[in-house]
Amino acid sequence: MHMAKKKGAKANGEGNIVKRKDGRWMGQVMLGYRPDGTRDRRTVYGKTRQEVANKLAELKVKAARGELPAPSKDTLGAYLREWLEAHRRFGGSGGQGLRLNTYRAYESTIRLHIAPMLGDRPLQKVTATDLERLYQAMLDKGLGMRMAEMAHNILHLAFTAAVKKGLLARNPCDQVPSPPRTRYRAEDRPRLAWEDVPRVLEEARKTRYYLPILVAMGTGLRRGEVLGLTWRRIDFEAGVIQVREQLQYDADNKLRLVPLKTRSSVRDVPMPADVAAALRRHRAAQKVVNLEGFVFTNRNGGPIRPKDLDYAWIHIRRSLGLDERLHLHDLRGSYTTWLAERGVNPKAAAKILGHSDLKTTLALYQSVTKGMMEEAARALDGFARTAEEK
């Protein structure tokens, strides 16, 4: 004679399932022992008994396959602190560790934006919904899509590491339906028109920053690459600038020459004749003896601070009434566009700029001007007559 099962009783091998006072169902199952010797008991919840039973069965299958993350009481904030320290030393391009500016950006984003909202959340309970709320809160504060995207990218890196370490079964960032993304394109940035170059250089001559700006405009070098130039890197005979390092602040907030970020950034950049002639005159006036000395210096003979060059550019831009969005870095995109207007092969431009991917050059730096579109139209002039002659 079979007796009827009591409501909520345990079926063979399915674990302990009970109905809570709030109407939800709770199930527990023992899956062995943790590394510290304590029992590995897992708890799941559901709206129905069958839902809980299915979740417990799934836990058992994953445990048997070795796919179940080890239980952890770490909060997201505690995990991010530990992860960031390891990533600072061993992450980044080629596993060589993070550059100081990158580390500072990661640290401040975590400390100011991620930790205050999600830092106390258990690592293993962070959901895609939590992340969506974080991104929306950042936008509501007026931080902008770019900052929200940075937070998402940092968390994606951190959660990927957690998955590899067996702390998470999946990356919750991958479950966000529409993660924050900036749609940056070359056409979205202002460019310095070729016909405005003489006006800019004339205005720059009134400052001590004329030569750094001239080099930036004529070579497409990044700000840190321009300010980090030493005389031994100027090869007048070959007509090139050897880009091997850049000027950057170190952990003690002192300006230092540091290696370039990527292999593709190491390159020889051709100098236009005007740039080479100006640098020759500057070298003669400087009476250079030490080739290790900086090409561009402040009044005390030390390297120029990046912000000082930025301020000089802002003054020039405003004096000429140029677009307020035209930053010093946009000269790099302007240079790329000027090359394209003169028919320079895009692959050559990418190599000069230090891009490993041609797509970066085309999508983020090279604008399509009205003149280029007109030239494209004229390129096929006469094709119909040629066809008729044949």
UniProtKB/TrEMBL annotation:
GO terms for molecular function: DNA binding. The keyword DNA-binding applies. Residues 74-163 form the Core-binding (CB) domain. One of its GO terms (biological process) is DNA recombination. Gene3D superfamilies: 1.10.150.130, Intergrase catalytic core (1.10.443.10). Residues 187-378 form the Tyr recombinase domain. Keywords: DNA integration, DNA recombination, DNA-binding. CDD domains: INT_ICEBs1_C_like. Site-specific tyrosine recombinase, which acts by catalyzing the cutting and rejoining of the recombining DNA molecules. PANTHER family: PROPHAGE INTEGRASE, PROPHAGE INTEGRASE INTS-RELATED. Belongs to the 'phage' integrase family. This is Site-specific integrase. It comes from Caldinitratiruptor microaerophilus.
